[in-house]
Specification:
Blueprint: H1 3-23, H2 25-39, H3 48-88, H4 91-116, E1 126-132, H5 137-156, E2 160-168, E3 174-182, H6 186-190, E4 195-202, E5 211-222, E6 237-242, E7 258-263, E8 268-272, H7 278-306, E9 320-325, E10 331-334, E11 340-341, H8 344-348, H9 353-365
Parallel strand pairs: 4-9
Antiparallel strand pairs: 1-3, 1-5, 2-3, 4-5, 6-7, 7-8, 9-10, 10-11
Helix pairs in contact: 1-2, 1-3, 1-4, 2-3, 3-4, 4-9
Length: about 375
């Protein structure tokens, strides 16, 4: 078989194997049978909340299993078609088969990512918090570039974006900002973006046109609903109010309506200033706090299970998950998976799916890659 066709087959096989491993294939099939039997039981609907949970689990599992089976069948049929075409010397048919395999490989990769988004809160909305590192205007400008990148990525995926909190830099950029991304699987896709992001470029703020390195951190956590219990005690909180920042004019808030909440035991800080009412800002800040504490517990569980320290680190050298180089050459490199792009402009315009898919896959396999950072 042609090398090109074999490469596509290997890619499809790798995607299918990863999904089967993630689902624990034999257990997943047994569980799907159990759920199908429960759905047929009319007593299930005596508890509508439980019934809804069962239906959602069944739908997700059924879609994942059906996708694997369909792609597996198409893979075998297309491979057989190519072998038959090559045996008969029909080059046109063989070419059609190779093109069909390429399309199937793309589908398998997309289905793989969807299957990996079956965590407890992967389907939820997501908060994305961006903070500038040390370095003044340079890092603050970089933080604003990241805020725009995630906004553009969310818009590409059809997600709604709300700016929850925003603190402008002294000269340019932002000190910090919090976005709320609303839509299906917002957290599942974005969760792998938590970490330190490094930028290398010729500074537009340096009259000598020297190359500068800037850092900013990204922290992603899910929005959670009232069904998830998070214990928050008043004695553990410090609540501060302050005047909202803005561009001025009719939209500026002249009262201390912005709210900042500090959770003393963990040091987690959340803030909200997008509402004109202090009461509404406080309610939104509490939602963020519950979400951050829940994510904090999820991360602790993940660290214990994988023995991997994925906690929040210093915003600087040695902690970055991705480097973006704009000069003297063009390259974006993920330091966890080795995925690269030679078009930083596209990445900064929201082309992040490849990076996210690779990081999701790595969480399943647990395989680490030795990746050297770029200069």
């Amino acid at each position: 078989m042609r090398a090109e066709a074999q490469a596509q087959l290997d890619q499809i096989d790798a995607s299918l194997a990863l999904v089967r491993r993630f689902l624990d294939w034999d257990r997943a099939l047994r569980r799907l049978d159990e759920l199908n039997n429960r759905v047929e039981d009319p007593k299930l609907w005596d508890d509508p909340k439980q019934a809804q949970a069962v239906m959602q689990e069944r739908r997700r599992l059924d879609e994942a299993v059906a996708a694997v089976n369909a792609i597996s069948r198409e893979r075998d049929d297309t491979a057989e078609l190519i072998e038959m075409a090559e045996a008969e010397g029909d080059a046109d048919m063989a070419d059609d088969g190779v093109r069909a395999l390429a399309e199937l490989a793309t589908r398998a990769d997309a289905d793989k990512v969807r299957a990996l988004l079956s965590g407890e809160v992967d389907a939820n909305n997501s908060y994305v918090e961006v903070n500038a590192g040390a370095g003044g205007t340079e890092s603050q400008d970089w933080a604003e570039m990241l805020q725009r990148m995630y906004t553009r990525w969310a818009e590409r995926r059809g997600l709604k974006v709300e700016l929850i909190d925003h603190h402008s830099g002294e000269q340019a950029g932002i000190k910090s900002a919090t976005l709320l991304l609303k839509g299906e699987n917002a957290y599942g896709y974005a969760k792998t973006e938590s970490g330190v992001h490094r930028l290398v470029r010729i500074s537009p703020y340096d009259s000598n046109a020297r190359r500068h390195t800037s850092f900013a951190s990204v922290w992603v956590y899910p929005e959670i609903d009232d069904d998830i219990e998070v214990d928050v005690q008043d004695k553990d909180l410090r609540i501060d109010t302050y005047r909202s920042s803005g561009a001025g004019g009719q939209h500026i808030n002249t009262t201390d309506s912005a709210v900042r909440i500090t959770h003393l035991p963990t040091g987690i800080v959340v803030a909200c200033q997008n509402q004109r009412s202090q009461h509404k800002n406080k309610a939104e800040a509490f939602k963020q706090l519950r979400a951050r504490l829940y994510e904090h517990e999820l991360r602790k569980r993940e660290e214990e299970a994988n023995a991997v320290n994925a906690s929040k680190t210093d915003i600087g050298w040695g902690h970055q998950i991705r480097s973006y180089v704009l000069q003297p050459y063009q390259l974006v490199k993920d330091l966890r998976t080795g995925v690269t792009s030679t078009s930083p402009s596209d990445v900064l315009d929201g082309d992040l799916d490849r990076f996210m898919a690779a990081a999701l896959s790595q969480r399943v396999t647990g395989e680490t890659v030795e990746v050297e950072d770029v200069d």
